[in-house]
Amino acid sequence: MILDITPTVSPRLGVWPGDTSLHRQILLDIAKGDNITLSTLKATVHLGAHADAPSHYGKKGETIEARDLSLYIGPCQVIRVPADPGTRIEPDGLPAITDPRVLIDTGTFPDPENWNEDFAALSPRLVDFLHEKGVRLVGIDTPSVDLQDSKDLPAHHAFLRHDMAILEGLVLKKVLAGRYELVALPLKLEGFDASPVRAILRPLGDAVNER
Ligand SMILES: [Zn+2]
Predict the structure, then answer these.
(1) Which uninterrupted H or E stretch holds 161?
(2) How far, in Å, from the CA of 161 to the mean position of ligand 1?
(3) Residues lying with their CB under 5 A of ligand 1, a single-atom ion
(4) Contact between residue 136 and residue 97 where contact means Cβ atoms under 8 Å apart
(5) What are phi and psi of 47, to 5 degrees?
(6) Are 71 and 196 spatial neighbours (Cβ–Cβ below 8 Å)?
(7) Residue 211 confidence (pLDDT) above 50
(8) Active-site residue 56, yes or no?
(9) To which H or E segment does residue 160 belong?
(10) How far is the CA of 111 from the centre of ligand 1 (A)?
(11) From 50, 56, 131, 162, active-site residue
(12) Are strands 88-89 and 121-122 parallel, antiparallel or unpaired?
């Protein structure tokens, strides 16, 4: 069984205020008599489900094509952490951490096609805590691990300190908490600060899909 945790990429998909939404230019079109259909894509690389590269938030950070792919594939734990809008999640009261990848369902960014500014984020203390537990990748169901109005990006900088990986913009609302195999490989985009990913989960052990 494959669970797709990627939002559909379309011009309707929300992007960060001021960033570039998706534009498709159709160069050739079979429906109009051309021999093939051929499209050009223009969009932010922080598009829907995406992996941030450390170069996005650190001067000497690695760019996306240089990242270790083993970060983005392997055992993973989905946890549901209901959070108040506009707050940072702290480590207190978190379920036991069992896997090197953790996806956090905050429920605070319910519709990727209708941007809401008050999504929850991670506290730097939480990132430090997950690092101590051996976590190498954290994913979230919001557009950022920091709050929308954050300029100093303390959570991103905690990821930078620990060389951990970030996935943002995941769709987790139909996924039960539990253990999965995650596959979410970034494209090999030279010099880029992020890449869209097709993020999927395959249940491991006692995880059961609810749909
Ligand atoms: Zn980010």
Answers:
(1) helix 154-162
(2) 15
(3) 52, 144
(4) no
(5) -110, 115
(6) no
(7) no
(8) yes
(9) helix 154-162
(10) 18
(11) 56
(12) parallel
- Is pLDDT at 207 greater than 70 in this prediction? no
HSE-CB of 159 using CA atoms within 13 angstroms: 28
Distance (Å, whole) CA 19 – CA 112: 15
Quote the ligand 1 centre to 32 CA distance (angstroms).
40
N- to C-terminal Cα separation, the chain: 12
pTM over 0.85: yes
131 token code pair: 């690092």
Q: Please, which pLDDT band fits residue 205 given cuts at 50, 70 and 90?
A: confident
17 burial class (0-12, 13-18, 19+ CB within 10 angstroms)?
A: exposed
* Token pair belonging to 66: 């240089």
Residue 72, token pair as written in the block: 């983005």
State the helix-helix crossing angle for 154-162 and 124-132, rounded to 10 degrees.
20
Ligand 1 mean position, distance from CA 166 (Å): 7
